[in-house]
Design brief:
The protein is 23% helix and 28% strand. By secondary structure, it is of the alpha+beta class.
Length: 215
């Protein structure tokens, strides 16, 4: 009889322990369901390079607005010292298809040796870059300030004098057949980093003219 009593006590104890464990699990799940879920990572905007485009082989800058690590073809690349939310990295890629990922944003593009031979869909446009002096970098067109820690911040665009530091004003007057003052802000018609159109235009000439003139 004694062993039956001991066995019964052990059985009751096991059932009680299982009930407590089950209640604990339910309590944990109940609490977990009510904990605030972590906010999703902030979205990013890849300013350059453009998606689904063809770039000629060479060195260029990846320009991103937002937070996140940079991966080029699956390999992590370091950012240069820029103040957030701007992120800039200098890369040089071999001809072929490439992928850039920052946070949740991923783009694909192609690098080509020339305008005729490249990998990727044939309807991808050739993207012509705005060539600037390598040592000037962003400072060629932007007002750039630097903190005591060496972080660079883009404050805005410089005036037309920055454009005429590389482009001759006499060439402007010969090519545009238009008085200069209305066109003194070159970025109204020309893309700063590059464009798939001739002369780095933001849109077709008729479209740009129609922004000021009745057609």
């Amino acid at each position: 009889m004694k062993w039956r009593a001991e066995w019964g006590l052990r059985w009751v104890g096991a059932i009680a322990a299982a009930a407590i464990a089950s209640a604990s699990c339910v309590g944990v799940l109940w609490c977990d369901e009510r904990l605030p879920s972590p906010s999703p990572p902030a979205d990013v905007k890849i300013i350059f390079p453009p998606p689904n485009a063809v770039l000629l082989v060479g060195t260029f800058y990846v320009i991103v607005k937002g937070e996140g690590e940079l991966f080029v073809d699956g390999q992590r690349q370091p950012w240069e010292p820029f103040a957030p939310p701007l992120r800039v990295a200098k890369v040089g890629l071999y001809p072929g298809l490439h992928e850039i990922r920052v946070g949740r944003r991923t783009i694909s593009f192609s690098v080509a040796l020339n305008e005729e031979e490249f990998e990727g869909p044939r309807n991808w446009p050739l993207y012509r870059l705005h060539t600037i002096s390598a040592h000037q970098q962003c400072e060629a067109c932007h007002v750039v300030s630097r903190s005591a820690g060496g972080l660079a911040s883009i404050e805005g665009l410089k005036g037309p004098s920055a454009c005429f530091a590389c482009h001759r004003r006499t060439d402007f007057e010969a090519r545009h057949s238009h008085p200069f003052p209305p066109l003194e802000h070159c970025q109204n018609c020309h893309a700063l980093h590059g464009s798939p159109r001739k002369s780095l235009l933001k849109a077709e000439p008729k479209t740009l003219c129609a922004e000021c003139h009745d057609t």
